[in-house]
Amino acid sequence: MKIISVVSRKGGAGKSTIVFGLASAAIHRGLNFRIVDTDDNGTSREWAERANALNGGSLVPCRTLITADAIYDHIDALEAEGGVDLLIVDNAGAASHVFEASSAADLIVVPLKLSGPDLEQTINTVEWFQELTTRLEDPTDAPKLRVIVNDIPLTLSKSQSAVLAAAQGMTFVGKLGLDVKLPLLDMPVKRADAYVTMGIQGPITEVIKRHNQNPSTLPMQRNPKPLLDALREMGALLDLCFDAIGEK
Predict the structure, then answer these.
(1) Residue 44 lies in a domain
(2) CB under 8 Å to 16, separation ≥6 — which residues?
(3) pTM: predicted TM-score of the whole model, two decimal places
(4) How many domains does the chain have?
(5) What are the tens digits of pLDDT across the range 106-155?
(6) How distant, in Å, are the alpha carbons of 45, 92, 117, 119 from that of 173?
(7) pLDDT per position as a tens digit, 154-188
(8) Is residue 95 part of a domain?
């Protein structure tokens, strides 16, 4: 079982888009996956409930766990059960005790929107990760960490271009006195209406399926390209996550 923890200490960074998108890609590939929502707000839980209600079943299995011990116990239970391919953890931004449970992940994904405050919080998260690594008995047991530039508009403003350039070329001295370079994934996630639709109507796979099955949908209107493009993008993101987990 691979564990991907999606982490952001700042609201509005697009964490939910990444969680929902990875779940959509997992469904498309037929993976047996689970979601853990560590946030009292229950964004992922509510999304899963809507998706399951629309599709009449348990398409998106999601549990809310708000303590590190509960998360560790759940991971142990899933590993003992076997057969689960992927666990996606929607990690609450402000809960430091839950942040610690990220050490059980194979990969920590940090979404970054192109703004100064978002970049600052991303740097803080990378510094936290450095500190977490030093507290482990064996630092090689630490999860991988990758930053994903999220919600990229078709045309960047000057300030967004400046933040992107800073993120791509930045090396800074972290709190531990070590040089740090943001470990960016090789692809950004584009801003797309398909992700807004996904947030309201559930996994992209199911949005496409319901659209195609609608009697009023003409043959030429089936498999709308914006939804297919979003699904491909999230599939590519999932591939990059698995590749990062497999790196030495």
Answers:
(1) yes
(2) 43, 44, 47, 90, 199
(3) 0.93
(4) 1
(5) 999 999 999 999 998 888 888 888 887 888 788 778 899 999 999 999 99
(6) 38, 26, 18, 15
(7) 999 999 999 999 898 876 655 555 567 789 998 99
(8) yes
